[in-house]
Amino acid sequence: MSGRVSGTRILVTGAGSGMGRSIARALAAEGARLTLFDLNGEAAEVVRDEIVSQGGEAVVSAGNVTVRADVAAAVAASVDAYGGLDVLFAIAGMIKPMHFLETTEENWRLTLDVNGLGTLICQQEAAKQMIAQGTGGKLILTSSIAGRQGYPNFASYCASKFAVTALTQAGARALAEHKITVNAFAPGVVDTPLWQKLDLDIMELGDTEKPGQAFAEFSGDILAGRAGRAEDVNGTALYLASSDSDYMTGQIVMIDGGMVLV
Ligand SMILES: NC(=O)c1ccc[n+]([C@@H]2O[C@H](COP(=O)([O-])OP(=O)(O)OC[C@H]3O[C@@H](n4cnc5c(N)ncnc54)[C@H](O)[C@@H]3O)[C@@H](O)[C@H]2O)c1
Fold this sequence. Notes:
The chain has 262 residues and is of the alpha/beta class. The protein contains eight helices and seven strands, in the order βαβαβαβαβαβαααβ. It has one domain: NAD(P)-binding Rossmann-like Domain (Rossmann fold, 3-Layer(aba) Sandwich). Helix content is 45%, strand content 15%. Helix 1 runs parallel beside helix 2, helix 3 runs parallel beside helix 4 and helix 4 runs parallel beside helix 5. The model has no long low-confidence stretch (mean pLDDT 97).
């Protein structure tokens, strides 16, 4: 399949749902050769089948981003299927809101583990393969408006997304000598299964009264006039994966409809 990322070998974590699924499909439609990684292997298989039925290329590697052997296996799956790896999208992530004063050690550890350490492990395992190839590459991470602003009920999540900013900058400086760039995209409020569950979790905390209320309230001030859809990040993702972004590293691209202005 020809396109803007034709033949590019791309590993996408969190590919079974939401923005990971949307980005994987968009990359495949532009000719990428994909490895789909997710804790939910069955969901990733559904996405693989969607891509293959459209004439695209995709294989699945199920696992947990916090388990190095799982991530290494996903990199190996790309090497087995396509002979190497050119681009990583580290998209897998989670959020469990808690009132600031009640935020627990368990909530902190799990959130930082998945969103922070999981991102670092993906960067390391992907970069090791790119260095061995000697081809350079691109590591694309997933930040958030919560990586730019602290929100009272998301202390752990915000800390984990600020960690992604640190990993973007540290990785960019560490890997430049290998011609590996590191950038991140930062969505705002996007209507995905993550936010659908978050909306209900916020209601359970007692902060809202009905389903959809938290989502509507968080989306109220978006300059674009509406909440995001998973597809809204596809164009930025394609740009970051393509050679158009070659002269760019260590950057966080806000793609939030105008929520955080930096
Ligand atoms: N939805 C939003 O409004 C929003 C806004 C800003 C940033 N984000 C970030 O974007 C990313 C994708 O979010 P989404 O809304 O598409 O979520 P989603 O819940 O729809 O999809 C996340 C996927 O990641 C997978 N996953 C979770 N933990 C994992 C782990 N430990 N190992 C492997 N896979 C794992 C899940 O199984 C799921 O398929 C996340 O990093 C999230 O923090 C989301």
